[in-house]
Each structure stands twice: as C-alpha cells, then as structure tokens.
Amino acid sequence: MGFDTNEIHTGEEPDFAGHPSGDVVVPIHLSSTFARREVDEPTGGFEYSRSGNPTRLALEKKLAAIENARYGLAFSSGLAAETTLCLSLLKAGDHVVAFDDLYGGTRRLFSRVFEERFGIGFSYVDARDPENVKAAIRKETRLIWLESPTNPLLRLCHIREIARIAHDAGARVVVDNTFASPYFQQPIGLGADVVVHSTTKYINGHSDSIGGALITSDEELFRNLRFHQNSAGAILSPFDSFLVARGIKTLALRMERHAKNALAVAEFLSAHEKVAAVYYPGLPSHPQHQLARKQMTGFSGMLSFELKGGEQEAKKFLRNLHLFALAESLGGVESLIEHPGTMTHASVPKTECRKLGITESLIRTSVGIENAEDLIADLDRALGTI
C-alpha cells in the first residue's frame, strides 16, 4: 500500500472478532495487566503492559509500515530509544563511529553516560565524506551512528555508501531519521540496520507527546531490542501511543506543507542583507543538494541560518518574533525557533561547537504549517530590529 494508506490504516484495521464494536480507531488500553484463562497461556498474547499493550502494538505496527520496515518499537522518549539500542548492542570496550554534527542530547548520552560510565569508545567524524567513516573504523567498532540531515547544521551523509562500508567491516548502521521523517526518507531501504526517531517531533506533529522509536527489518535484532525494551522498561504509555498514532495519520499532508513553507522561508532568508548563510537541503546552493535529491523525496521543514553579527544580535532578533515560538523541539504544526549554542546544544563544549560550525549567530528553525507569507513577514519584522 502507499504511504498515505499505510499511515492511516496499518495497526488500526477493525477487528470484528476481538473487538465486536468494530473500532475504526484503536482504543486506549489503560489496563496495566491482563487476565488469562490458562496459567501458561496469556490471553491474546498480552500479560503486562510494560511487556506489551494493544494500543502500543498498533502504533508499533504503524511505525514499521511508514518506514517500509518489518518491526517497530515505541519508547518513552527519543533518548530512551537510543539508550535501549546502546544497551542492546554495546558493551565495555566496544567502539562507535558517529557523525560529529549530532543532537546535543545524543552527544551528552554518548560522552557522559556510555563513554564515562560504561567504557564504550566514540569517534566523531565528518560523515559527509564516507572515507572519513571508513578511516575511523576499528576492529572494535560495532555501530556507525548517523543523522541525515543533521541537527543543527542540516548536513547529509551518503547512507547507502556508508552502509556498504560498515557492513564490510562487520558493523551495523543506525540512522536518526527525525529531521527528514519517514515521509521524505526511508533509511532501511538505503541499507541502514536501525532507524531512530524522536516521535515527539514530526511523527506526532502536535507538540503534545514525548516519545521515541526504533525500527528495523532484522528479526534477530528486533527480538534483542524488544527484550531490552521490556527489561529496561522505557516504554511509551497507552495514551501517548494513541496520540502518536493519531498524529501519523496526517504525516504526509503535514510534511508537504512543512517543506513548501520551509523552502519559501529559506529563499527569503537567502536574499536578506542581514543573513550571512542559510542551511537548507532544498536550496540548490546547499553543497549536498544533489545527494538530498537522490536519497530523499523532499526536504522537510528544518533549516538553520546565520545572522551577520554575533550572539547579541541573534538574541535581539529572537526576542522580536511573534509567530515563531522561542522554544526547543521541532516538527510541530506551529513554527519554533531557537539558538543552538545556548539551547539544544548547550551541553556540547563551546570549543567543539566552534569546531563544528555552531556559531554564536546560528539560528535553527522548525517551519510550521501556518501561512508562509505571515511567517516571512514575522521574520522580516524581527530582522529589521537588528
């Protein structure tokens, strides 16, 4: 079935045998435990909601379907999903090669938890060049960890080529697909072993649920991940599972509007005299625009830009916006804007930020689905104040 059909129907087909009411929308199963008729046979396969819940299962089927994969698992946050993945696949002495431009919370998890506390090694490379990834691989390397596009600089990596390099070396490839969404990019089809999402973002799409997901087509890997999901217990609640499943039903429509608005905003900013640079894969000026066209079907709603000036000009600009909410997170129907250096990437050392190109004048925005002309007018007014 097509993406638009899968996002609506998968996991929510009316079950006239199990649910005689013929629910068109999966019910919210709040029960923490499930009765059984026989001691050794759980009714319907459910016994305790940490181990499995009908509402969460419906969402997990939907998550797999929209990534064109076989298996999905839902977690209490994106970082909970990442933590469970690392617990499942890594041990002391193992090594990970990661894109150097990563979400600040992921960098913090790697450096302050798994490196400091568990003895797992991490090497950060500019994965825009697959040869940098290849050169960093050691015999202890178990994972290649990628974002594409990256947070916050919207850099891309050649997923298929890096997957080939990784698999030749016996390593698995993990791709955080949060910025692109499954509508515009499906890394499993490009050779990735696991896809990570913060479902908080585009997948839910309404800024009212925190969640995460792991998606794969590898059955053995899925069973390992599911075991650790149950053992560690960082599962998504039934109510949040319902919210995310509901959000998915409009993902295709929302992503089309996000991308259309983001391109209009990017073109406006590129022509503005007070803007030094714009980072958006949908612009022909983006250095990896052709790669984006090759492995993505659209360019999503995330973009970053640098102002002419420093941190004070950036803060003054942000204070004078009205429609763009000054807030962390992304992917909601409303437009959000933030200063990575002091907000989403505050946990990354300043020296590392400067090395990566996260400057004091860098602004990151999640372009919503409002009227594009209104958004541009809001940006124009705020730029006029600096």
A few lines on this structure:
The chain has 386 residues and is an alpha/beta fold. It has helices at 3-9, 54-66, 78-89, 104-115, 130-136, 159-168, 181-184, 219-232, 238-248, 251-270, 289-295, 311-319, 350-356, 372-383; strands at residues 71-75, 95-99, 121-125, 141-147, 172-176, 194-197, 212-216, 275-279, 302-307, 325-326, 336-338, 362-366. The chain contains 14 helices and twelve strands.
Structure description:
The protein has 2 domains: 3-248, Type I PLP-dependent aspartate aminotransferase-like (Major domain) (Aspartate Aminotransferase, domain 2, 3-Layer(aba) Sandwich); 252-383, Aspartate Aminotransferase, domain 1, CATH 3.90.1150. With 386 residues, it is an alpha/beta fold. The termini are far apart. The mean pLDDT is 96. The protein is built from 14 helices and 12 strands. α2 (54-66) packs parallel to α9 and α3 (78-89) packs parallel to α4 (104-115). The chain has a 7-stranded mixed beta sheet, sandwiched between helices. Strands 8-9-12-11-10 form a 5-stranded mixed beta sheet, covered by helices on one side.
Write down the oligomeric state.
Answer: single chain
Number of helices: 14
Q: How many distinct folded domains?
A: 2
Strand order of the largest sheet: 1-7-6-5-4-2-3
Q: Radius of gyration, rounded?
A: 21 Å
The amount of helix comes to 25-40%
How would you state the average pLDDT, rounded?
96
Tell me the strand percentage band: 5-15%
Largest sheet: 7 strands, mixed
Q: What's the count of strands?
A: 12
pLDDT < 50 runs, ≥5 residues: none
The helix/strand class is alpha/beta
Q: For the terminal residues, how far apart are their CA atoms?
A: 50 Å
- Order of SSEs: HHEHEHEHEHEHEEHHHEHEHEEHEH
State the shape.
Answer: globular
Determine the CATH superfamily of the largest domain: Type I PLP-dependent aspartate aminotransferase-like (Major domain)
Query: Can you tell me the CATH class of the largest domain?
Result: Alpha Beta
Q: Which fold does the CATH topology of the largest domain refer to?
A: Aspartate Aminotransferase, domain 2
CATH architecture of the largest domain: 3-Layer(aba) Sandwich
